[in-house]
Design a protein that fits this description.
Two copies of one chain form a homodimer. By secondary structure, chain A is mainly beta. The first copy, chain A, contains two helices and eight strands. Strand 5 of chain A pairs antiparallel with strand 7 of chain B.
Amino acid sequence: MVNFEKAGGLIPAVIQESGTGKVLMLGYMNAEAFENTLQTGKATFFSRSRNKLWVKGESSGHVLKVHDVLVDCDEDAVLIVAEQVGSGTCHNGYQSCFYRRVQSGTLVEAEPRAFDPDAVYAGVAPATKTRQE
Amino acid sequence: MVNFEKAGGLIPAVIQESGTGKVLMLGYMNAEAFENTLQTGKATFFSRSRNKLWVKGESSGHVLKVHDVLVDCDEDAVLIVAEQVGSGTCHNGYQSCFYRRVQSGTLVEAEPRAFDPDAVYAGVAPATKTRQE
């Protein structure tokens, strides 16, 4: 169904918000993370920096409730349509991790900040604040 | 602006259709492909199988005209909002490469076929028909 071996064990997973169609983030899944996503209905990634499974929102409460799972033609990328619980996906306080656009050779903010990351991640160890928590 | 080195030279690029918000495909870009995308306004990828730059649509005519380029918080993934010229993105004849969904443990078609790939890719060498052409 998905060819994890071809891609060295990890495939990119695009998260798209149900309803709005907004692309929220891109993470990586190994076979176990993909299976966990299907079984629990919560988007689960493999953290390359911490070398372990990571249920998105386990620190912040901002879980991604899975509505639909699509697989691409080459079976080496997935698209997860999900409901964003809480005010946003990005650890920097934005709805989407793609909150900046390229404009005249530089990056400019493309959406307003949606929440205060210091409040949401209060008490969370710095290492787990990164997107690849 | 984008950290290609961190990811070993290649970053994933998500293509989202302008207007509809439909996620059409995921490809990979190296620094040169990204620069070419910005300069020409046509989504350009690096083909891992052919080890060269690949302007999407150069065989099929189905180019992706870039409207917006967004970069994620970690600067190792990009989201390209683009206009799909022609009837679809996928070399299998669908609007989106993500044309199948996971349902009851198997893959089922999630959208109707949009065009006949044999007609669109007539005369194109088989090796260039793959998504990673």
